[in-house]
């Protein structure tokens, strides 16, 4: 080689080195933000490369993952995969791909699960070349034959959800898992198919979030910033609370499919995937900046926590899922817990810590189902949860207690130490039950006032409960014998809901008309400290069928030998073959639980004839769900009911549930009951809990109805309402709601007691008088079933009302004085002239001013002892009367003057300067 050639080669090498040094890195080899997000998603699926395989729970999970793919019984997905060149399906049990879209989805799901085993650290199948080849071959086959961007043979059939949500979710995961094992052409093909069916996050509720997740993960795979941004922005409408249709409501309700309560079904899925998407985008260019994301964290407190009982999601908000054998109440609860766990990684510090405390409590208290072994729980989730459980600085939250009313979905939850009760209802606003896709075929009476009693018997509603329970006889319901109401039906009744008292106790009611029949009834539940009082009246039917009120339908132990007692300590026979037994003159009953803390007592305020049946019941999951197993399963049950006969007129019932009470305690309670039934007719149900001094009443009619206590008038309502009143030595407190959600005006309540003062009241409550009786109105227009509170003082200085027409009020300027029945004492003083004023001299330490609020309302200044203290705005888009617009309770006790002076100013939305003075109140 000559010198010139050597110099040329040297120069070429130098230029090559300089070019490599200064050129941008090749996209084929350099990691970018998209790759980082893809790796982040991969870690959530497999746990990543830093998996602690020596951890027993993680080791067990790896074995579970492997066994699903291949096992000694040759029943794994890989074992049963058709690998032949002439195949027409991948698995013989999901072979109808050309007619059943779920067979396409399930095929992708199995390939995805095989890919998880292929890419999980510690798996014996890690990077197995034969497995990898078979997975990719399966993906190519499905793409070529059933799921691609072509239009000729790919018009979606069967269930749209499989095409647009179920299948692309599985396919996206499979591509993330196999990203480096697929060719660029394969990735492009698969992702073109996803984009063909799910190009954007459309629809509402859970469906919208699912689609947003599909679009986002695909965007990460193909490195499409616009798609990722679109998926993020698609979440904003989900963050918003709704007032109708699908989504979350401010009262904690969640609705899907227009009118079905679904917190534990679609709601949980929504929470899972919104948490996953928030976590994926956290800290990236596409991080969620919408401030309404805080609502997601609020949902945990309001819409999920009340329904998760010791790790189990209450069945009454799971819809069709109760008919799926692989989706138990605990499995659904675990999904919600996993979603909340994911939120701990993105939520503000305070919320994150609160969630961790809840998680620790739920997992510790769920002694029935191991969270870690749940097939839906990933290695990554196990790792995060174990770090929470092992953190001694995180103390578990205490057992949640309280009464929770969900007016927007006709559900009630009552949580007390050691037990919880759910009540499932429907109305003209909410459907009775959902039964689509051949699921939930026996959900007939699950919203007919069914009561779900939760105790320490955490398997009560699991273990094949639903295919074996008598679905014609569900606890809490009043039904025509052996009827099958159609699904997806609203009632013609709107009185469904209730009222809470201090968030601790409550009254719930349901005006019931069984769909497709003549059966009608009024049903109430009064939920106190350690008892639940069930009252019914107006039970009427002309259907020529027997009507039954089902007190209980409790799953027994495996032998069905739970001790059962009636009226005394003598145990009844435990035979499963005696048939129906009739117990006349029943005062109390007691059924031993399957575990400690699972027993239930039953008290009957009046002598009652009760029928009982101890039986062994057999069914199959296919009875409920076309996709369910046809294998027979059995459980033993104790069923208790009241027989109202055929064609009853104004039938009734009353019984008291005593959860966690022994037979001795039940007998003692029956001898000295803590409750008194005050009213039980077609106009009102009312009960007094004597130890709490708490009266609860459901008023069924728009008439003036009075409930008596000890033979004297006590509580009166002029409209349909749910009311609770509690007296103590120093005060009396009331809570009122309109369960019909149809009253566009007010409810007037009168309590036959005298008070000295108004301690507090919600703005919707207007106090008319405190003596000689307490009388107030509640504006329930647009309240959507919400409860409103007022509290009166029984001791201390009395309050004095001074009407605008009183000679004690001195007016200057221009005022018009006239009559108006909407005002206190039916008089009003009105002015719109600047500097016109009204002055009152009074003796006391507190002053309140009441006016009308209106669309033409102006502003006025308040002077105390000739010193300016405030400007008050009386504008309101709608007329409001007797509104307390100003209060000062910090004055020295003595003589003072208060002056109302028109300011000549108004709210920008107001059409005038008017002030409608009603009255002053001082004490």
Automatic annotation (TrEMBL):
GO CC annotations on file: extracellular region
Keywords noted in UniProt: Lyase, Signal
Family that this chain belongs to: Belongs to the polysaccharide lyase 8 family.
Record carries keyword Aminoacyl-tRNA synthetase: no
One GO-annotated biological process of the protein: carbohydrate metabolic process
InterPro entries reported in the protein's UniProt record: Chondroitin_lyas, Gal_mutarotase_sf_dom, GH-type_carb-bd, Lyase_8, Lyase_8-like_C, Lyase_8_alpha_N, Lyase_8_C, Lyase_8_central_dom
Polysaccharide lyase family 8 central domain location: 405-661
Protein name (database record): Polysaccharide lyase 8 family protein
Lineage top rank: taxon: Bacteria
Domain Polysaccharide lyase 8 N-terminal alpha-helical: 41-360
GO molecular function, one term: carbon-oxygen lyase activity, acting on polysaccharides
Location of the active site: 257, 266, 320
Gene3D superfamilies reported for this sequence: 2.70.98.10, Chondroitin AC/alginate lyase, Galactose-binding domain-like, Polysaccharide lyase family 8-like, C-terminal
Pfam families in the record: Lyase_8 (PF02278), Lyase_8_C (PF02884), Lyase_8_N (PF08124)
Signal peptide (residue range): 1-30
């Amino acid at each position: 080689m000559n010198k010139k050639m050597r110099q040329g080669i040297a120069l070429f090498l130098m230029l090559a080195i300089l070019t490599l040094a200064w050129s941008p890195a090749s996209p084929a080899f350099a990691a970018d933000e998209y790759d980082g997000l893809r790796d982040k998603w991969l870690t959530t699926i497999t746990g990543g490369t830093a998996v602690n395989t020596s951890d027993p729970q993680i080791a067990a999970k790896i074995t579970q993952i492997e066994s699903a793919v291949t096992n000694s019984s040759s029943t794994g997905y890989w074992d049963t995969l058709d690998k032949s060149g002439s195949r027409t399906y991948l698995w013989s049990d999901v072979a109808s791909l050309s007619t059943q879209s779920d067979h396409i989805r399930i095929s992708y799901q199995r390939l995805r699960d095989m890919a998880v085993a292929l890419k999980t650290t510690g798996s014996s199948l890690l990077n197995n070349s034969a497995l990898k080849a078979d997975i990719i071959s399966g993906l190519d086959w499905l793409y070529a034959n059933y799921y691609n961007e072509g239009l000729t043979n790919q018009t979606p059939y069967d269930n749209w959800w499989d095409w647009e949500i179920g299948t692309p979710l599985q396919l996206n995961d499979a591509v993330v898992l196999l990203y480096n094992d697929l060719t660029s052409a394969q990735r492009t093909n698969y992702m073109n198919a996803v984009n063909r069916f799910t190009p954007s996050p459309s629809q509402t509720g859970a469906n919208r979030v699912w689609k947003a997740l599909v679009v986002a993960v695909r965007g990460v795979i193909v490195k499409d910033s616009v798609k990722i941004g679109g998926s993020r922005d698609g979440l904003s409408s989900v963050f918003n609370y709704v007032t109708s249709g699908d989504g979350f409501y401010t009262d904690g309700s969640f609705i899907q499919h227009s009118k079905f309560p679904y917190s534990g079904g679609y709601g949980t899925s929504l929470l899972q995937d919104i948490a996953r998407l928030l976590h994926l985008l956290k800290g990236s260019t596409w991080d969620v900046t919408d401030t309404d994301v805080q609502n997601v964290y609020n949902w945990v407190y309001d819409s999920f926590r009340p329904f998760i009982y010791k790790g189990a999601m209450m069945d009454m908000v799971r819809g069709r899922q109760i008919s799926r054998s692989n989706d138990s109440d605990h499995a659904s609860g675990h999904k919600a817990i996993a979603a909340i766990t994911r939120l701990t990684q993105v939520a503000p510090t305070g919320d994150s810590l609160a969630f961790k405390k809840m998680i620790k409590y739920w997992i510790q208290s769920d002694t029935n189902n191991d969270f870690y072994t749940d097939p839906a729980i990933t290695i990554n989730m196990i790792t995060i949860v174990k770090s929470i459980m092992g953190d001694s600085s995180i103390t578990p939250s205490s057992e949640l207690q309280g009464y929770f009313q969900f007016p927007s979905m006709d559900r009630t939850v009552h949580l007390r130490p050691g037990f919880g009760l759910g009540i499932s209802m429907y109305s003209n606003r909410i459907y009775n039950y959902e039964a689509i896709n051949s699921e939930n075929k026996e959900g007939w009476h699950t919203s007919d006032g069914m009561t779900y009693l939760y105790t320490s018997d955490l398997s009560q509603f699991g273990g094949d409960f639903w295919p074996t329970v008598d679905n014609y006889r569900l606890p809490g319901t009043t039904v025509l014998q052996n009827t099958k109401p159609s699904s997806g039906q609203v009632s013609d009744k709107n009185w469904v809901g209730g009222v809470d008292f201090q968030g601790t106790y409550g009254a719930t009611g349901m005006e019931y008309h069984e769909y497709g029949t003549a059966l009608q009834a009024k049903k109430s539940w009064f939920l106190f400290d350690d008892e639940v009082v069930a009252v019914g009246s107006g039970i009427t039917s002309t259907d020529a069928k027997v009507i039954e009120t089902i007190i209980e339908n409790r799953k027994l132990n495996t032998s069905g030998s739970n001790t059962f007692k009636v009226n005394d300590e003598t145990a009844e026979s435990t035979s499963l073959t005696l048939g129906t037994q009739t117990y006349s003159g029943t005062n109390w009953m007691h059924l031993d639980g399957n575990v400690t803390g699972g027993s239930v007592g039953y008290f009957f305020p009046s002598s009652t004839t009760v029928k009982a049946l101890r039986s062994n019941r057999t069914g199959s999951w296919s009875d409920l769900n076309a996709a369910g197993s046809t294998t027979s399963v059995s459980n033993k049950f104790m069923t208790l009911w009241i027989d109202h006969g055929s064609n009853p007129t104004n039938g009734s019932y009353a019984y008291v549930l005593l959860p966690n009470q022994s037979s001795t305690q039940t007998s003692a309670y029956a001898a000295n009951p803590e409750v008194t039934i005050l009213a039980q007719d077609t106009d009102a149900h009312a009960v007094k809990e004597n130890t709490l001094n708490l009266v609860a009443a459901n008023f069924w009619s728009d008439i003036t109805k009075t409930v008596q206590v000890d033979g004297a008038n006590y509580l009166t309502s002029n409209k349909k309402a749910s009311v609770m009143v509690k007296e103590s030595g120093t005060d009396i407190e009331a809570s009122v709601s309109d369960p019909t959600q149809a009253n566009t005006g007010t409810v007037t309540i009168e309590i036959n007691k005298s008070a000295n003062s108004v301690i507090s009241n919600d703005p919707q409550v207007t106090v008319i008088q405190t003596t000689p009786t307490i009388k107030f109105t509640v504006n329930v227009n647009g309240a959507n079933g919400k409860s409103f509170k007022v509290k009166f003082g029984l001791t201390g200085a009395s309050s004095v009302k001074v009407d605008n027409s009183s000679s004690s009020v001195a007016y200057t300027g221009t005022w018009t004085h006239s009559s108006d029945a909407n005002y206190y004492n039916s008089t009003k003083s009105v002015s719109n002239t600047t500097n016109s004023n009204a002055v009152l001299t009074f003796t006391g330490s507190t002053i309140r001013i009441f006016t009308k609020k209106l669309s033409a309302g102006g502003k006025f200044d308040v002077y105390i002892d000739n010193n300016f203290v405030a400007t008050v705005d009386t504008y309101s888009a709608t007329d409001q009367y007797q509104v307390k617009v100003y209060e000062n309770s910090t004055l020295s006790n003595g003589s003072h003057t208060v002056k109302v002076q028109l300011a000549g100013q108004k709210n920008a939305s107001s059409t005038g300067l008017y002030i409608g003075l009603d009255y002053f109140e001082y004490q």
